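Work package 3, deliverable 3.1, input record:
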Amino acid sequence: MTPLVLALPGNDALAAALAEGTGGEVGGLALRAFPDGETHVRIDTAVADRDVVLACTLQAPDARTIPLLLAAATARDLGAARVGLVAPYLAYLRQDTRFAPGEGVTARYYPRILATSVEWVITVDPHLHRLRSLAEVYPVPAVAVAAAPAIARWVADAVPDGVVVGPDVESAQWAGEVARRAGRPVVVLKKERLGDRSVRLTLPDDGPWRGGTPVVVDDIVSTAGTMAAVVRRLREAGSPPPVCVAVHTVLDDGADAVRAAGAARLVTCNTIPHPTNAIDIHPALAAAVRDILAR
Ligand code: R5P
């Protein structure tokens, strides 16, 4: 039977792309709040014996998680063959260790909560720093789709004299791969985090960043403290206005901060709907769904 794709609120474009790319159908999922704040769930399309694909990106995850779990439970209760989740942005991966006594390591707990209700998960470039792979924390199959091929195509087209800049060692995995695929040089800075919104960066005095338009590549723009600091540092050192590329942008005003710092523009992948979305990652997600359903 053809897969049934259900869109959680705000995920209609993703659901349509997944249905198109898998030969599936977008089904009806109606969610509404009862007066007491609980969620009412209704699936309006036949579910029995079908693969159900829930489309739900997970920025600001706390409010999205309960409706998602309830929709998954409803699909299973109605006889779905398997229920999986496509979450282009996967939350709760940054608290991957106990940085201070008494803290919870939520990167280990949240996956267990999702895995109570879905049998597989597909995401895009999860924030893996101290974790080497999603398999370390996800008890169900969890696939990470790489944005680098799509970003590299965009860079090669839009910024042919680009010099890829990674803000910190964590970004080296994305920046290096984008540079290699786009056939452009790369430089990775050193970053010291001073607080939630403040970082200190070290830029080499010289290096390939002087030879073209800097293209700053990072996985997440959250407060935009990191991206804006890189832009300011490059501009102080005499670079042309950098182009900034992030896989995910999780806060609405982050883009304004990047522009205010002196960037030429900020572009993002469409893992989270945002006016800066310019790089389409949905076809790669649909391909990953086809693969997992064929297993
Ligand atoms: C950090 O390790 C990440 O790769 C990003 O650099 C970070 O999450 C960006 O956060 P913000 O925009 O708040 O500086």
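The longest helix spans residues 61-77.
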